[in-house]
Amino acid sequence: LSGGRGLGTFKNGFKGGVHMLTEAGQAKDYAQSMLGEFLVTKQAPNGILCNRVFLEMYLSLLMDRDTQGPLLVGSPVGGTSIEDVAHDHPELIFTESIDIMEGITEEQCVRMATNLKLEGDSHAKAVVLMKNLYEMFVKSDCTQVEVNPLVQTMDGDVVVCDAKVNFDDNAEFR
């Protein structure tokens, strides 16, 4: 994956390496315009060959000022600015407030995996991933773990492709 994919242009003239689709039938047309083509971005001025197209999602854990505890945030639309998604399609942003004393629950992870539109093995793998991310979040004194994109592969795996992690500076003594 290349940073800036959403703003990139394929050498065949097709604009953008990240697209929000509203109908399943659109995926084939978009994929045909991307596969086998070179995507030119600021980070890859000579272009990167596109040999796979993924369903990209967004997932993050962060400290929420309102609840003074962790918040799980997810969207079935990833790979682009989550702020733009929140502005243009707020119905596609899902949150789960986590009780810091109880920790993340199975039910919260299942709901989020469902909201990400995952099914079957991918759904179960996403639940495990969320539990593991939360464990890392707490044990490493994180203030934010932002996964963008989170992707579902053709064989049903759920993979973190890129992440931003911030730590609590006040916990440095540990």
Describe the protein.
Strands 4, 5, 6, 7, 8 and 9 form a six-stranded antiparallel sheet that branches. A three-stranded antiparallel sheet has the order 1-2-3, with no helix packed on it. The protein is α+β, with helices and mostly antiparallel strands and 174 residues long. α3 (106-115) crosses α4 (120-139). It is globular, with a radius of gyration of 17 Å. It has four helices and nine strands; from the N terminus they run βαββββαβααβββ.
Topology:
Elements: E1 9-10, H1 26-34, E2 38-40, E3 48-49, E4 55-64, E5 69-75, H2 82-88, E6 94-97, H3 106-115, H4 120-139, E7 142-152, E8 158-160, E9 163-167
Antiparallel strand pairs: 1-2, 2-3, 4-5, 4-7, 5-6, 7-8, 7-9
Helix content: 25-40%
Mean pLDDT: 90
Globally, the shape reads: globular
- Biggest β-sheet description: 6 strands, antiparallel
Poorly predicted spans? none
